[in-house]
Structures are given as structure tokens and as C-alpha cells.
Design brief:
Two copies of one chain form a homodimer. Chain A folds into three domains: 3-44 and 52-112 and 239-307, FAD/NAD(P)-binding domain (3-Layer(bba) Sandwich); 117-236, FAD/NAD(P)-binding domain; 321-438, FAD/NAD-linked reductase, C-terminal dimerisation domain (Enolase-like, domain 1), CATH 3.30.390.30. Helices cover 25% and strands 27% of the residues of chain A. The first copy, chain A, has eleven helices and 25 strands. The first copy, chain A, has helices at residues 11-23, 45-50, 64-71, 136-144, 156-167, 188-199, 293-307, 337-342, 391-403, 408-412, 428-438, and strands spanning 3-7, 28-32, 74-76, 80-85, 90-95, 98-103, 106-109, 113-115, 127-128, 148-152, 171-175, 203-205, 210-214, 219-222, 226-228, 231-234, 238-240, 270-272, 279-280, 287-288, 321-325, 328-334, 347-355, 366-374, 380-387. In chain A, helix 1 (11-23) runs parallel beside helix 7 (293-307). The longest helix of chain A has 15 residues, at 293-307. Chain A is globular. At the A-B interface, helix 7, strand 21, strand 22, helix 9 and helix 10 of A face helix 7, strand 21, strand 22, helix 9 and helix 10 of B. Chains A, B: One of its GO terms (molecular function) is oxidoreductase activity. Chains A, B: Belongs to the class-III pyridine nucleotide-disulfide oxidoreductase family.
Chain lengths: 440, 440
């Protein structure tokens, strides 16, 4: 009987094990998870902090018991893998009950990502990383007891934490290295809109670099000033968690584990999936790294399919991102304009502002759209949207278009729906596209 | 100097003339419009009746003055074209100021559609067609004065009028020939959901055929009963308005004007665009007819481009439809399951019900999705969604997928955005698609 061992019970690990179970009812499947949670959702942390829900079990799509009982998967929570012997196909793990040695025929590495750290002096009792749901209850308790809170990093997590904390009435200072917030998500035209919006609620410090954090998180020293606060959230990004295997397995140029289309590492029976795994960007054909749950889930599904004997290939990523801040939804897909240049494209772009509803329908929201295409091939390279409603679906549509190499004119002709209550007869996306056509 | 004459100043006609003007600044362009409105939006009528806006000028994207002044287009409103001499290239028209004779080098026929009528006896002072915005003020005044109103026809317009009138507190009886409402939009699984919802607000009579309407609209006789009401709205569909040219120009099998990819009729200098024009269904490659404004606009844009000397081809349609009823948005694209069978496909389908937000995020809405694919080619043939939010964009995404022949697996891998506040980590569309994959 084949044995599958999965290291890490997050999105990718549980997808892989569930899919393998479906295809191979007799396989012995064991998942080692270092925390108390499996199939957990870090994306929910800001909303838990905001107080939108209170039951930490809701962080889990399914409980360990569900996987044990319904899917016959051995789930070892609070169990940390300490070593992997890839040549002998053995995983060593440890829990409070002692050491475990597990042999495998197939291995899935799905260890996720780790938050990047900053230089810290004099303790860290007031330094927080909103990274893992297993610590969310403690995180929330502490944050709720503080008044002046610094967030370092104005990416998606930083902005989401700013939304949560300002909603709670906290005084927030947001310190960001970039010239505007969300600069890894949006180009400046659209990024400025969000930056200015957040400035209404929080003190935003741009183009500023943190040198060190002192007094356990109560003092922040940057290249331009000092800030005294009650505590500090560090949200300066994540990095693939490859600690366990980095000397044993081939990593890619992004620092994540290199895999082929089947999600196989350089060991034929060892798969990697999720935030610890490198992918290929569909637009560039080059290595890329996207640490988001939908990608992790699909990587896991592909790994599990192949382990289960049903061949499947992961096509790569287009870096779809979506977040929100108060009344604004914020989405992007594909390459930003600078990225496009860096990869050797000759980007042309159209940025338009419009409304989300027919001119006569009440309560229309603003929507701002940037579309980037390649002047030579006419292919759509990227899209960015900031708006009050129906941002997600437009981004999803552009994701489909970009993944299959739609040119500008293909995109113009997508027969988008029109309902006065929720769209425009010339959809704002089509208006932007039409502008690119006129440039021809 | 080239002369362009456009018959009909709706979406298609004004798109065609605007685009031609852009490309040929010196062209002499004349638009004949039988009513007082141009670039008008019939889709707004139910919302005007509901009282969501009061200024009838909002039905127009731009006024005749705008086109005259900003785009140098001669707009002749309240002017009816009475005859077209295609061999001599002359259009004859009439207004209260007298007769007009206009020669052309290019002609665009964009006469739109007409509402289908029913057998009527004894006058029609209480029979209404919610078809043209030019009559919306009068329509609304009359409807507001009535209490018991029948709507005949449970398609999109009938449902939208039911939403408006029940919202106003009117007693509505909705009489429909089909087994469930919106049966030309949705398959029965999803159609039932909407039908049951509307039954809470209105008396819904299904599978019932109107034989005649009497007493000016106060008495309806069907094959199963008689209904006394204060007035009757007839919403049994529309038909291409080809009266003017039906004996002179080639019509297609749908009854609309046949055109090539350039929107040209069998006369090289005569184009046709909008609701009076036949298209090709991209999925089947067969003639099809879609009387919706976004298609009309793009047809007009293509006609205007070609007249302006910039070659462009219209790729065909996938019949995207979107409407709403109270808290439900309702969308479809591509073929329904029955249609797919009729066209010789071997449809497989997955229907799922899910939620629109992460399980921990408050106020999630229900969403119901049906995806139809072809068992042989694995191509996506159609999609239908009924749900409380973010229906439009998912339909738009499926429209893109269907237009470019995505197979099931391509669609599974679309990197859809995930934000707990507005989607699920396994998007409901992907859940439906995944179910189709498991059937393989």
C-alpha cells in the first residue's frame, strides 16, 4: 500500500491529500502540521482583528477531525517535522508525545511562507506578525488593548490591518518604503487613489525605511524619524518557508522550491505545492512566485492528482490580487507597467475613470481602470482596478484573457453583461480597451 | 465628400456614426431617428417606472445637440424614413417640416427591434409595451394610476417590470407560457429559484397561453382562465425591425438582416448593425440573434470602423444576459443545456450552490451556478448564475472563456481573485468546474 506524507496542513497540503485520497482510496496518507490548525486561512486575520467574527475555528475550512473521519487522512497537528531524508524517503517529526518516523512513497512539501522580519533591539513583546491564524486570538487580544499602533509595510496585509485597526478607532501610523501604498499591486495612478483614501484615516509615512525597532515594539527608528507607539505590526512581506529542505532540494531563482508542471521537485516522488513553491508566470514564461491561497489550492490539487495517478499540469500564474479598503475594492492581474518593461515588453497603457452603474441608476460608485498591453504583440499584459463595486469579476475576466493571450481586440469583443443597476452599456473595462485600440 | 446616412439613432446607429466621424473628419453624416431621442437606453424603462430616476433625458447617453455640436453629425429627430432606394442610393424621410431626400455613399441600417404583439379586441388604451424610452413618461404616469396590473411574458423585461411594479406596491399577475420564469435565460434548476422568489410578490401563472386581450387591456383570456385587471403590459419578446428593407435586402434565418463579418449586407455600401441584425453564435458557428445594447454598440462600432476605412471584424455573439430581481442577480452566457443538445453537442453539466463570501465573513449571500460543457470536446458551452452579489463579473469571465473555446481544465485554472469579503478561496465557479472534472 502506497504511503503519502504531507508536510504542512495549509491550503496546498490539504488539497493535495484530499485529491490523492479521492483517487486512491487505499493510500495511507499522513499530514504533519506544526500548529493546531489545518486548511487554515491567514487571509481572515485582519477581519478577525476587526471583530467581524469571533470563533477561531472558522479559520479552518475543515477541522482535523473532518479529515480524519470523512477523508481517512491521518492528521498530526502540533507536530513539527524536524528532518527529511530524501534518499531514504523518511520524514522525522516531533510533538509533545514524542518523536515520529514516517516512511513515504510520495512526499508533498507544503510548508507555506514565513513573514519577513526586521531588525529588532530590546525585546519583542509588542511586535506582531499577522501571519498565522493559530495565533490570531492572542494577536487580537493584544491589539485591542493598545491605542497607538504602527504598521510597517503598506502592501496588502498592511492595508488590510490598517482597515481593521482604524475601523476599531485605533490611532494608526503606516510606514511604507514605497512612494505610495500597494506599490506591488498597483501602478502609481491607481495607487495614489488608495493612498490618499487611507491618509484620511491614518498617518501614512511614504518612502521611509525602518532601521530598527526598539523597546519591544514601542519605538520605531526610520531613516527619517522616530515614532513612539504602543505596539508594532510588521507586514513587510513573506518569504517561502524552505528551511527544512533548502540544502537538499533544488530551489528556483525566486528562492522557492523549483517544480515541473506536475509539481514535482528534482526528486521524482517529492512534490511541492503552495507558498513554498515557485511557479512560472504565464505572460513572461519566467519563474515567478505567488503566495496566495487559490494558487496554493490548485497547486495542491495538481500534486494530489498526479500522485493519485491522474496526470495534470499546472499552467502557471498571472498574479491575481484582490483586496479592499473601506469602500474601495482593489484588484490587479498580470504585470504592472514597470514589470512589463523589465521583462522586455513595450507596454502601452490606458487609464480611465468611470462609474459602475448606468447614469440614471442611483448610487453609482467610482471605478478606475488601467489596462496594459504590449505594443508589438497587442497582447494584454495586465489590468488594475480600484472601485466601489464589481471589481473582482472584472479582474477575473482579465485573468482569463491574460492567461490565454487575448490581444486588445479580443478583449474589446468580450460580450460583457449589461444591467443598469450594476454596469454600463460600454463597460469601463471596454472603455479602457477602446482607448488602447484608438492608439493603434 | 463621402456621405453616410444612418437609419435609426439608437445604440448601434450612434456608435456607427461616431466611429465613422472619428476616422473620417470630413465625411457628411446624417442620422434619421423616428422618435425624439437618440443613443437611448430602453433597458432603463423598468427603473424609470420604479421611480429610481425622474429625468427622461437621462435615457440618452448623449443628446442630439451633443452629436450635432461635438461630433458634427446631422441628427434628424422625429424624422421617419419612409423608403430606401438601394440601387440609386437614396433615403426618403418625413418629419412635420416636410419630406427629405438624402443621397448616400454609405448606409447603416440600425432600426432596432419592435415588441411582439398579441391578439387584441376592443381597443388598447390600457395595453402597454415598455419598449421605447420616448414613451416612458406617459407609460409611467398611466401605470402609477393603476392598481391591478397584468404582465404577459416572464422573460427579462417581464421580470424587470414585475420588480418595478411590486416595489411600487401594485398587485401584479404575471402570465407566462413557459414552465418557469426566465426560461430563455436559465435552465430549470436555476429558473425555479427565481420563479419561487417572484411568487412571494406576485401571482405567477405558468404554462399558460394568452388567447386574447379585451376591453382595452382590462380583460385577459388565456387557455386556462380569465383575468380582470386595470391594465396589461405585454412583454412577450421583440422581433427585428426590418419592415423598411425586408423585400430589398437579404435577411437571415433568424429574420434579422444578414451581414458579413464587416457588418455589410448583400449591398456592399450598406451596413446593418444592432437589434435588426443577425449575428453568428461563436459556440455553434450558426446564425443567431441577440437584441442587447452592448452587442448593438459593438456592431455599430465595427460598421463605423469599416466605413471609416479601418478594417474590423465582428467575431459573433455568445448571448450574455444579465438581469436582477430584488436581492438576486441573474446571469447567463453561451448555450442553455437544451440549446446545446439541439445544436448537436453532448452536454454535461454541474450545478452547485454556494456562498459569496468566506465562511467567517458576515453577510454572505447565496449563489447558484450551473456550468455546461461538451463531453466530447470538453469545451465550456454555457454558464448560468443566480446569486446575491458578484454575478456579473463571473458571467463576464465565462463569456471570455466561451468566446475563446476554453476547455473545462482551462477554466479550472483561471486564477480568480480571492478576498474573504467578496469571494471564496475555491470560487463557486471553480467548484462547479471541478465537479465537471471529476465526472471525467
Amino acid at each position: 500500500m502506497d504511503k503519502l506524507v504531507v508536510i504542512g496542513g495549509g491550503a496546498a497540503g490539504m488539497s493535495a491529500s484530499s485529491r490523492a485520497r479521492k483517487l486512491k482510496p487505499d493510500m495511507e496518507i499522513t499530514v504533519f502540521e506544526a500548529t493546531k490548525m489545518v486548511s487554515h486561512a491567514p487571509c481572515g486575520i485582519p477581519y478577525f482583528v476587526e471583530g467581524l467574527f469571533n470563533d477561531e475555528n472558522l479559520f479552518m475550512t475543515y477541522t482535523p477531525q473532518f479529515f480524519e473521519e470523512k477523508r481517512k487522512i491521518n492528521v498530526k497537528i502540533n507536530t513539527k517535522v524536524t528532518e527529511v531524508d530524501l534518499d531514504s524517503r523518511i520524514v522525522y517529526a516531533e510533538s509533545k508525545d514524542g518523536k515520529i518516523k514516517a516512511e513515504y512513497d510520495y512526499l508533498v512539501i507544503s510548508t507555506g511562507s514565513l513573514p519577513k522580519k526586521l531588525s529588532v533591539e530590546d525585546g519583542n513583546d509588542r511586535i506582531f506578525y499577522a501571519h498565522h491564524p493559530a495565533n490570531a486570538v492572542e494577536l487580537r487580544e493584544k491589539l485591542w488593548s493598545l491605542n497607538n499602533i504602527a504598521i510597517i509595510g503598506g502592501g496588502i496585509l498592511g492595508v488590510e490591518m490598517a482597515e481593521a485597526l482604524t475601523h476599531l478607532g485605533k490611532k494608526v501610523i503606516l510606514i511604507h518604503r514605497g512612494k505610495y501604498l500597494l506599490n506591488r499591486t498597483l501602478d502609481q495612478e491607481l495607487g495614489n487613489i488608495i493612498t490618499q483614501r487611507i491618509m484620511k484615516d491614518a498617518e501614512v509615512r511614504l518612502d521611509e525605511r525602518v532601521e530598527t525597532i526598539k523597546n519591544g515594539g514601542r519605538l520605531i527608528i526610520t531613516d527619517r524619524g522616530k515614532y513612539e507607539v504602543d505596539g508594532t505590526i510588521v507586514a513587510v512581506g513573506v518569504t517561502p518557508n524552505v528551511e527544512l529542505v533548502k540544502d537538499k532540494i533544488k530551489l528556483g531563482e525566486t528562492g522557492a522550491i523549483k517544480v515541473d508542471e506536475h509539481m514535482r521537485t528534482n526528486y521524482r516522488e517529492v512534490y511541492s505545492a503552495g507558498d513554498n513553491t515557485e511557479s512560472i508566470h504565464i505572460v513572461t514564461g519566467k519563474p515567478y512566485w505567488v503566495p496566495f491561497a487559490p494558487v496554493a489550492n490548485k497547486m495542491g490539487y495538481v500534486a494530489g492528482s498526479n500522485i493519485g495517478g491522474h496526470e495534470m499540469k499546472f499552467p502557471g500564474v498571472v498574479n491575481t490580487q484582490i483586496t479592499k479598503y473601506k469602500e474601495f475594492y482593489i484588484g490587479r492581474v498580470g504585470l504592472q507597467e514597470d514589470e512589463a518593461k523589465r521583462y522586455g515588453f513595450k507596454p502601452i497603457a490606458a487609464t480611465i475613470s468611470g462609474k459602475t452603474r448606468a447614469r440614471y441608476y442611483p448610487d453609482a460608485k467610482d471605478i478606475h481602470i488601467k489596462i496594459i498591453a504590449d505594443e508589438n504583440s497587442k497582447k494584454i499584459l495586465g489590468g488594475q482596478i480600484v472601485g466601489g463595486e464589481e471589481v473582482l469579476g472584472r479582474i477575473d475576466m482579465l485573468a482569463a484573457a491574460i492567461m490565454k493571450g487575448f490581444i486588445i481586440e479580443d478583449t474589446f469583443f468580450i460580450e460583457m453583461g449589461y444591467l443598469p443597476a450594476i454596469s454600463r452599456v460600454w463597460d469601463p473595462v471596454i472603455v479602457a480597451i477602446r482607448q488602447l485600440m484608438k492608439d493603434e
